[in-house]
Amino acid sequence: METHLGDGHPRLSVLFPRKACRECEDRLKCTGNVEDKGRHILLLPEPQQKFQSQVRKDQKTSNWQQRYAIRAGCEATVSETVHAHGLRHCRYRGLAKTHVQHVLTAAGTTIVRLSDCFPPGTTPASPPRPPSHFKRLCQRLPT
Fold first, then answer.
1. Which of 48, 57, 74, 76 is the most buried (most CB within 10 A)?
2. What span, in angstroms and rounded, lies between the C-alpha atoms of 22 and 6?
């Protein structure tokens, strides 16, 4: 039976009978449900289904995964700023103030990430600070 979802694109709806799914040894791997319901699959029209199957096959290659690693890094950054730093909940009104919040959130995220680069005890040695004026005065005093 051909059906249209909310996006208006045609799909082929396939519903397996409950009995066939109940008797199948791979039911839990296939459907993930334990309520004895039959499997329901929505398939794309044949040309699109073939294309989708080919893309899913390509996704398993190392070349595709290397190219996707760049996007995965960007997605991780967006996810972190949304979940850990509340990027989607703006505290201000107006485009200018919202922009400032986004810039500061991005800067804060960068600082947090940089702080993870050097775990405690492994930070590079910084040059010694020059002695303060008070310390120099104290050093000149006779003991």
1. 48
2. 30
